[in-house]
Amino acid sequence: MMNIKDIIKTNKLEKLVLEGTFGIEKEGIRVDDNQKLALTDHPELLGDRSYHPYIQTDFSEAQLELVTPPEQSLKETFKWLNALNDVVQRSVESDEYIWPFSMPACLPETEQIPIIRVRDQKEVEYREKLAEKYGKKKQLISGIHYNFSFSEQFVKSIFEHQREHDSIKEVKNELHLKLTRNFLRYQWILTYLYGAAPFAHHSFFEQAKEEIPLTKPVRSVRNSSMGYHNSTDVIVRYDEVAHYVNDIEQLVAEGTLSEEREFYGAARLRGNAKKIDQLNHTGIEYVEFRLFDLNPYSKLGITNEQARFIHLFSILMIWIEDSKAKEAIKEGTEKNEQTASEDPFAKSAYYQEGMELLQEMQAIASELKVESEYFEVIDQAIAALEDPSQTLAARLTQQIDSVDQYLKVGRKLGTQYKQEAKGKPYLLNGFEGMEMSSQLLLFDALQKGITVEVLDENDQFLKLQYKSHEEYVKNANMTAKDTYISHWIMENKTVTKKILKSKGFNVPDGEEFQSLEEATAAYYKFKNRSVVVKPKSTNYGLGISIFKNSPQEEDFKEALEIAFKEDTAILVEKFATGTEYRFFILDGKVKAVLHRVPANVKGDGRQTVRELIEQKNMDPLRGTNHRAPLEKIKFGNVEALTLKEQGYTFDSVPESGEIVYLRENSNISTGGDSIDYTDKMHSSYKELASRMAVPLGVKVTGIDLIIPDYTKPSTPEDPGYTVIEANFNPAMHMHAFVTEGKGRRLTRDILEMLFPELY
Amino acid sequence: MMNIKDIIKTNKLEKLVLEGTFGIEKEGIRVDDNQKLALTDHPELLGDRSYHPYIQTDFSEAQLELVTPPEQSLKETFKWLNALNDVVQRSVESDEYIWPFSMPACLPETEQIPIIRVRDQKEVEYREKLAEKYGKKKQLISGIHYNFSFSEQFVKSIFEHQREHDSIKEVKNELHLKLTRNFLRYQWILTYLYGAAPFAHHSFFEQAKEEIPLTKPVRSVRNSSMGYHNSTDVIVRYDEVAHYVNDIEQLVAEGTLSEEREFYGAARLRGNAKKIDQLNHTGIEYVEFRLFDLNPYSKLGITNEQARFIHLFSILMIWIEDSKAKEAIKEGTEKNEQTASEDPFAKSAYYQEGMELLQEMQAIASELKVESEYFEVIDQAIAALEDPSQTLAARLTQQIDSVDQYLKVGRKLGTQYKQEAKGKPYLLNGFEGMEMSSQLLLFDALQKGITVEVLDENDQFLKLQYKSHEEYVKNANMTAKDTYISHWIMENKTVTKKILKSKGFNVPDGEEFQSLEEATAAYYKFKNRSVVVKPKSTNYGLGISIFKNSPQEEDFKEALEIAFKEDTAILVEKFATGTEYRFFILDGKVKAVLHRVPANVKGDGRQTVRELIEQKNMDPLRGTNHRAPLEKIKFGNVEALTLKEQGYTFDSVPESGEIVYLRENSNISTGGDSIDYTDKMHSSYKELASRMAVPLGVKVTGIDLIIPDYTKPSTPEDPGYTVIEANFNPAMHMHAFVTEGKGRRLTRDILEMLFPELY
């Protein structure tokens, strides 16, 4: 047998052994306001379980299962788990929440427990059979599955430095079999540390009505004989892949198991196909460890620290010696059951073995030069082994001393996790580094069950997939539905204007200049008009001068100089008076109209401006540095000056109903308000804006119109608007969460455009 | 009547009166090698006359007509005229050229002169009728038509400051009628100055075989009674638009003219429709002046200076007093014919009137503060009025004293203009400021007869149109045929690689890093491989380090630091060995394959390296600063160093056949050679490259493959290639003009993709 530890050390594979592919599955049941199992359907918002890659149901209609995609680091895995948790928490009915414990809350009579309601009748029948065999209630027990494999590169390196095996596949099998065998042998330590199901609600038990577990708490009801296990005659071998396959196939053939997937061992070998005999051909892809209780103190059911411990534990399992004997595993399983049934405050029966393993783990951590966080979790484990009261089971037992308390704590934690997820609906945990619109789109895609790959997080680059239909999206609305040239048309203000003008739309008259000399010479054209002087391509309001009346020659020249500081070309345009509205166009339809108002507060005759601002800034939609759809109003110089011009200071008390402005510019980024006008805007302008997208050849655009009176229809004689800009990649989050009016979930419209077959 | 001069002065319209819309039409006949009228068809390369907006034929199949689109300045008009001249000169058969004189070269017998060969039978019949009426030969006289109107803004300003007229249309009519009347009154001065048809070849005359004109040269045969005119009873009034329309309609009704367009007055009023009575409704759009002979000393038939003079002359015509009397125009016409028939060296019979007009013109030029070039042309005109030998007619008469000489000079100038246009086939005169690929595309579009609007010259933005089909093109191949997202996919090297890899293509293994720390920590992954370290997104070869063998840790770190100087993210990739080829893909097909070789010379055993370089640099395809498809090899330090490493200096004499390199890098921009491999490349790689475009979702891309042996087929077991990059907006000019092999005119393929209905 290969000495993996020596190969690693001799060939300096210390970094490689830390690499792996990770995945987490998390179950949890929906309960109603009274902590009773929810009898409602799986939330419709969560798409269709027949294809949903991330959010499924298992046995019961009420049992949600979150599945992270395979990732190359635990950090990535937790990003997904966080995001999926947000999606699920925000998708359950308002009077339901997700129960935080592995053992269920109040269960109804067995016959009332709903089996999954899916179209596939075979799936329903399979679960009916299980219900009959194991009892429906046991199947509501929830937990965490941890999926893992060592990296290809590590396996390859081991292969290159050993002599026993002829193929990478064999080495991979050998490595993961060893991992599994030792994992099963020493799994008790994980149950000791992380067992978190000290008792169950009395409604869980089919016969005995007395509250057995509460009077005698254990480390893990779920891992004890009271949990959901195969019958004791289901024993499979882990010495060779062929034996594992053969044993399970045999159990199915003789009828002990109804299907292969009914094998519930604490560890399963997984291939890349559903049928187990594929393992013989393709080898082990990864292993699945199923023994973890939900950690109710984490909204995800498992903490980062736990996962790091399990990762290092897995490395320990291939590092130390091993036994292929069936008995070793049997013994391990018994130790685990024994540990699960121990009093949470009792010292472990296997304390000595545990301490040796943890010390070895420390030694490995040093050799591998892992990050300090890893050492911390080992220290914590050692401390908990010394002092059982630090284990999860003990902590829960201390906190809960009655049925009432059990339900209360469950409710408190469950509703708290839901509230946390709903508090900032514009963020998607795990991906909060991305632009807000990308987070919203990602949320909507995950909710709908569209497969997402984040191709480049910094670049806001996503791949979306439904069956064989692939779409790429950048910055939430840059897609294959738009053409290359329409982007460049909109990037060039002169070209945009020329095109819109040629199609009869009302653009501000104007001219482009390449040099100060040329522009100065053209003064005669503008001297009797109201004009805007602006750089051709910068977009942030820099270098713009407005002359509402005929400009003096000197002022005009100064404005030109200011504009030329920002760009090599400038525009001089007729100034259009009126209010600016942003029309968001998608596929020929106006999906949202927004007006932005400069930062302001409304007086109540009682509070100072400062207090009014502080109050307004309490809105969870207001944040700082573009991390929220609206920005907090600042107490800066510009704000003070703006107040001064109105005869106020921060300490003035405006009259009731009076609007006091803190800014002249209407940007959201300086605390402005956003007001939805989608339904209020006269239809003639919406019609016009949507028609403008046609010559620009664009599906998704934000068109800015200046409209003096939005209630008055546009007519050919009196258009009543000027179009000043068409924007590619228009912001979407600002329409989703508005200060006033109805939010517009444009990211969902983008998905519908990309995947019409799903809507 | 409005006093236009006073209105201009009082209201400071001096700049506005200079504004206008300009257009030039230039006729010219194709002749063969022997100066005989070409009897061949209109060049097929010049598209279809049934829709061609710029290049037409008039009476004869051999008479080419260039028509510039209306432009807002003479500068723009001349850009177009230059470009159209390039197109036509490069499109005529190799044994033909364009005759530079207004009067034709050797004409065959009348019956052999071909009338236009077009499908429209009515057009042919119309010309047959004209042939009968005027004689075919007269219709081969060529000239320049000058189209002009004052700007809308100027007309509007005049309207606002006068009291006689109720509408802008009336003012516009009045202005242009005055211009026309005075123009006709004083046209003689233009014939005096620019008449350039002192004689005609004897074959031009139907009856008299003697060389009348050569024995007695005149200022302009074309403007004399020997030219192509309506019969003397064709007289129309220019006092009112209604009269003008009425008179021409009357002439058609009574049969004096067969169609309205048979009216050949030296000035025509033009509306926006073909039927003349539209003028009554829409008013005058512009006026057309038809009296100008081809200036044989200009390849365009007219110089910039002439056009400037005509422009100022037009302003003079509305500035000075005016007469509505029919007689005034009749007198002007007679003076013109008289002037045309004068001896080129004779003083003008109307010298005094001319001098007064030119002095008034000087005064106006001062008042309008026009650019100095305008003053120069007035000075030249005054000098020529004083000294007839400075007129075009006199200069020609001095140069030509025999029939033989006439044909020789015509041939010399005509072939010279053709050679000039063909010498740098990669440039399009007038648009030489644009990128080379845009110039090529523009050329191809103009040649084919696609309507082109240059929306933004600096931004390489074109609008192309055929009938109602519009397409926008930026940088010659960025179009609506490509999607928005494909651009961003290719801009992101990591995303490109992920996508290509997921579809089974052979990309270099590698990883992206966001920080030096993270990248340094990953050394263990690359220490035993040959790797390239490069910035993620910069494209110019900066910050790239190559380790052909396992990198030392220190060197690796240094390479990382170098790369991070160029970008915030870097890539470390497996280094692929082999030769790099650029595959240009269009619509799923490989249209060109190119390999670039470092700057080099081939020895001849006789010349020094310096001489060999100088010789190679003589190639007209080699230029400097990217203004030619290939760059001249430089005599710089890098070149000297590269020679030194091979044991050479610039003064060494390499052996015959020996290749000496001047550079290590293969960039064209440092003098490299380009070699076409389109036909040589093994088809399996072309097949692969074209398939790569599919997942990228791109129609036009340049894919770079590293291929060790281009003759050996790619197989699944041994792909034989690595794909290193996919480029959006790939260069096209470098494929069109190559050092070795066949050039590929990709711009034509782009047009075919955009307008399949035309090909």
UniProtKB/TrEMBL annotation, chains A, B:
Q: What does this protein do?
A: Synthesizes glutathione from L-glutamate and L-cysteine via gamma-L-glutamyl-L-cysteine.
**Gene Ontology molecular function:** ATP binding; glutamate-cysteine ligase activity; glutathione synthase activity; metal ion binding
Under Enzyme Commission nomenclature, its number is: 6.3.2.2, 6.3.2.3
Q: Which reaction does it catalyse?
A: gamma-L-glutamyl-L-cysteine + glycine + ATP = glutathione + ADP + phosphate + H(+); L-cysteine + L-glutamate + ATP = gamma-L-glutamyl-L-cysteine + ADP + phosphate + H(+)
User: Which organism was this protein described from?
Assistant: Marinilactibacillus piezotolerans
Output the InterPro entries linked to this UniProt entry. ATP-grasp (IPR011761), Gln_synth/guanido_kin_cat_dom (IPR014746), Glu_cys_ligase (IPR007370), Glut_biosynth (IPR006335), Glut_cys_ligase (IPR006334), GshAB_ATP-grasp (IPR040657)
Q: Which domain of life is it from?
A: Bacteria
Pathway where it operates: Sulfur metabolism; glutathione biosynthesis; glutathione from L-cysteine and L-glutamate: step 2/2; Sulfur metabolism; glutathione biosynthesis; glutathione from L-cysteine and L-glutamate: step 1/2
Task: Give the matching Pfam families.
Answer: ATP-grasp_6, Glu_cys_ligase
* A GO CC annotation given for this chain: cytosol
Cofactor(s) for this protein? Mg(2+); Mn(2+)
For this entry, the protein name equals Glutathione biosynthesis bifunctional protein GshAB
Boundaries of each ATP-grasp domain copy? 497-755
Tell me the segments the record calls region Glutamate--cysteine ligase: 1-340
Oligomeric state and partners?
Monomer.
| Keywords annotated in UniProt | ATP-binding, Glutathione biosynthesis, Ligase, Magnesium, Manganese, Metal-binding, Multifunctional enzyme, Nucleotide-binding
